[in-house]
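User: Fold this; tokens only.

Assistant: Input:
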Amino acid sequence: MKGALKAKDRTRLNVLRAILTEITVLEKRSQPVQTKSQLHKLLEKRQNTCKAAAEEFQKAGREDLVSKENEQIDVLQEYMDDSPTLSTDETVLAIQNLIRWMQTKGSNPNPKSDKKALRYLFQEGGALHGKMVDKSLVSRTFERLVNELPPWDPSMRAQNSYEQHGGREQAGQVTVSR
């Protein structure tokens, strides 16, 4: 913020002030921004708002306001690029490991009822804990991968992961061999 003040970069200063205001409002609503992923989500929300405003200004023929919104979008994008999200491949790998872990426990993963199992990925110690990842992508990928599984055969159950990994059991981080 000091850099924006010294450089007299009004666009960057306005964006930073708006973000700080949103963070303050969220703190008062008992939903404080505590992780990088929450901050990234806030920046993404703000960017989407600016994009929608730019579209409305475009329809109204206000090119001056369109350029102002586009400048804000660029500033927000700079900050979003500083906090990269997890790649799709890494996300898929974590979900595949979760499905394998569920199978070692003797359950047949069901895309509708087992979405609550995804919470293991985001809990402390889980493969996706504290990482910036699109949760809707995780949910859709989980559903797709479970639907691609062959029919469940309980006799194909893998060795108990607790024994297999020397007493270390962690959802979403276990590799299983069949």
